Amino acid sequence: MKVKLSEIMEAIETSNEYSENFLDRETGELVWVSEMAMTREEMDEIYNRLDEHGFYRLPTSFDIREYDLMRKFVSSFPEKARNRLAKAINGKGAFGRFRDTIRQMGVDEQWYAYREAAYREKTIEWCEDNGLEYEE
C-alpha cells in the first residue's frame, strides 16, 4: 500500500488530546476518531471495523513534541534573538507567546518551514517503521 505523505502529515498535525488517527490496513483509508465529536457508539463502530481489518495507529502531535521543536528552533538564532524567543517559550502560555513573538520578529515563515520539515521527517520515519511506501 502506498500512502500520501501530505495526508499522513495533516492527520498527525490535527490530532489532539481528544482525537487520534488510524490507517486502515485493508482499505488504506485514514480514519479519525474523536471523543469530543463522536458518540460512544460511533467510536465503537469504527474501532470494531479497524480491529477486523487491522490498522496502523498514527503518531500524534504529542509524539512530535512541539515544545521541543520550538526549543531547537530558538537555539538556532543569534544570542539577542535567541534570548527573546527563549523568554517567550517559558511558562504558562508559551505557545501563544511564541506565535506572537515570531510574528513580531518576522520569522514566522521560517518557523512554519522548520515545523513542517520536522513533521515530514517524523511522517517518513513512521512510514518506514511500518513498512509503508509513500509518495509526495
List the helices and strands and how they pair.
Elements: E1 2-4, H1 5-14, E2 19-24, E3 30-34, H2 40-53, E4 55-57, H3 61-64, H4 66-75, H5 79-88, H6 94-105, H7 108-129, E5 133-135
Parallel strand pairs: 1-5
Antiparallel strand pairs: 2-3, 2-4
Helix pairs in contact: 1-7, 4-7, 5-6
Describe, in plain words, how this protein is organized in 3D.
The chain is an alpha+beta fold. Helix content is 60%, strand content 15%. The strands form two sheets. Strands 3-2-4 form a three-stranded antiparallel β-sheet. It has a two-stranded parallel ribbon with strand order 1-5. Strand 2 (19-24) and strand 3 (30-34) form a beta hairpin. Helix 1 (5-14) crosses helix 7 and helix 5 (79-88) runs antiparallel to helix 6 (94-105). The radius of gyration is 18 Å and the shape is elongated. The model has no long low-confidence stretch (mean pLDDT 92).
